[in-house]
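Sequence, please.
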């Protein structure tokens, strides 16, 4: 096998060309090579754990427990799953042939795409860059990672980790802002994986369209959470508060709003308020377990959503110097209120009352398809009915967020909440393609297929079809 090429690429154009050249050498097609590189990534995450945790604390005020659980352990779980199953994922699948092609053989083989671009997000900087990278490596690709500049310390820590673990001709990091992103999007990637919001997603798609580059978009939306009368309200309230205010609400899977039977709204509000106090104390700003907003822009955006949106039950106060917004619970919210006009992506939980479940479902269906739909119900006929009558990237009953921790559950949106699936085998398949292989013997020959055609050959064809 040829020797690896040396690289001193300094521009996106040179970097991508170098990776294309390296991919052509064929190293990444070898399954053992991929397994070794996944082990390198795992080792690098473990060795750089302290640096990553410090960066996440500076950028987002992430509590160590949340950072380890949702960032580091998530990536390690993905790697371990790929290490365990990669050989079976890469095995070719034999398919049958019609009798007219006997003797012969046919198979479907998963092949790598080539050089891929992974554009991460700021809310889970480690998970949303290294998580997709696991699938890209497992599928046999080279990759360029673009971490979000909104989390600068995390971006720097990820870049340091990747540079320690990999040669840039195989996996590289490009740090910077919009100009760097635009320069990368102008390059000939074989796939673009983007996590973020719909505005930038449209820009990514526009660039990709110029080269007909396939894209995966992991977006978000206003994820509904429906409480049925049959739900265990005390447990539901605690789980909803945990899922909503994990990472200060800056999660694409967080419940955006809660729908509660009108005659039980006060009960839920009391339980949720008690859970907030139980989790974060009477003064959440002093709690070491509550994260911070990413930057001033997002804090100001969130604060604009509160006035005119129902009534503040608890929270609503902020400290711009700390980028702190208290866990906020809103009651008597209407569908026309400001907080219901966009994805919240922060620690504000609107509660809307409904009179009939059909009406609540109709309101959900009147809006773009969300990334997740949450249902709390002990009556399985209710949860099944909501599943049948709604559309979302995932459906989770009696819990929140945890569906993303199952490697065998493909993760992604539908419609406005995204396109494409990853995690586990789905990530391997996302970054590869199905190549059809057919082999036939030179003999026997079937002269009936060759011109000149006549009535006898047409009759033969008709008999074959019947």
């Amino acid at each position: 096998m040829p020797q690896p090429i040396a690289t001193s690429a300094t521009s996106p154009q040179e970097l991508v060309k170098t990776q294309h050249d390296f991919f052509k050498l064929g190293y990444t097609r070898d399954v053992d090579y991929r397994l070794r590189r996944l082990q390198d990534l795992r080792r690098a995450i473990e060795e750089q754990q302290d640096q990553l945790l410090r960066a996440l604390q500076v950028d987002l005020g992430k509590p160590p427990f949340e950072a380890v659980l949702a960032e580091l352990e998530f990536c390690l779980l993905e790697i371990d799953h790929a290490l365990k199953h990669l050989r079976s994922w890469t095995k070719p699948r034999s398919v049958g042939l019609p009798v007219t092609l006997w003797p012969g053989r046919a198979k479907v083989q998963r092949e790598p795409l080539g050089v891929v671009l992974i554009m991460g997000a700021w809310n889970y900087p480690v998970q949303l860059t290294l998580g997709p990278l696991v699938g890209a490596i497992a599928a046999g690709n080279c990759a360029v990672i673009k971490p979000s500049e909104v989390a600068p310390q995390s971006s720097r820590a990820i870049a340091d980790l990747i540079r320690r673990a990999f040669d840039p001709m195989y996996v590289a990091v490009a740090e910077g802002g919009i100009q760097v992103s635009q320069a990368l999007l102008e390059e000939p990637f074989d796939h673009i994986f983007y996590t973020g919001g719909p505005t930038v997603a449209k820009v990514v798609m526009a660039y990709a369209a110029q080269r007909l580059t396939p894209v995966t978009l992991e977006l978000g939306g206003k994820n509904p959470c429906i409480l049925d009368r049959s739900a265990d309200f005390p447990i539901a309230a605690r789980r909803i508060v945990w899922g909503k205010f994990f990472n200060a609400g800056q999660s694409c899977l967080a419940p955006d709003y809660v729908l509660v039977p009108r005659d039980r709204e006060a009960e839920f509000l009391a339980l949720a308020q008690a859970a907030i106090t139980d989790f974060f104390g009477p003064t959440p700003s002093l709690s070491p377990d509550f994260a911070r907003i990413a930057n001033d822009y997002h804090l100001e955006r969130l604060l604009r959503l509160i006035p005119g949106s129902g009534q503040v039950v608890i929270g609503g106060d902020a400290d711009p110097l700390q980028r702190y917004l208290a866990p906020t619970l809103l009651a008597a919210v209407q569908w026309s209120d400001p907080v219901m006009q966009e994805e919240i992506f922060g620690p504000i939980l609107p509660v809307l009352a409904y009179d009939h479940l059909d009406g609540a479902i109709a309101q959900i269906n009147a809006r773009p398809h969300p990334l997740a739909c949450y249902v709390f119900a002990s009556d399985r006929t209710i949860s099944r009915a909501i599943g049948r009558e709604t559309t979302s990237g995932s459906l989770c009953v009696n819990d929140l967020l945890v569906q993303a921790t199952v490697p065998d559950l493909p993760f992604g949106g539908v419609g406005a909440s995204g396109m494409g699936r990853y995690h586990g085998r789905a990530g391997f398949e996302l970054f590869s393609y199905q190549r059809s292989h057919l082999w036939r013997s030179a003999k026997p020959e079937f002269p009936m297929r060759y011109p000149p055609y006549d009535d006898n050959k047409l009759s033969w064809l008709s008999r074959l079809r019947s």
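The first strand starts at residue 93 and ends at 95.
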